[in-house]
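Extended Data, panel c. Modelled sequence:
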Amino acid sequence: MVEYRIDRRSGVATYLQIVQQTKQALRLGLLEPGDRLPTAREVVEATAINPNTVLKAYRELEREGLVEARRGLGTFVRRTLGSAPADSPLRGELADWAARARAAGLERDDVTALLASVLDQLYEGDDT
């Protein structure tokens, strides 16, 4: 089951953080079709956010066809995204690179900016 982490200083709306983290879990294979998302109550207890915020995120995921609400049962994953499993050798290589970047004194935002610039260049003109 996914555990949401809310960064109140990120500038990203709380419901979008839930949507993004769910999509990331789907891409990494941490959530698969049939898995149940935590209930709104469970998310509220873990993160101290408004239940309506959780429901808004779940409605957005449902609108995108990623999850479905089953009355009285919860919200379940309908489909997955991508093909980057969490146990991929590439993840290990990326973790090693990130550790070297941190050891070199780069802050998290520096690493994020550097990675984004490389990805932007690599996928320039690509609609995926």
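The chain is about 50% helix and 5% strand. This feature is highlighted in the accompanying rendering.
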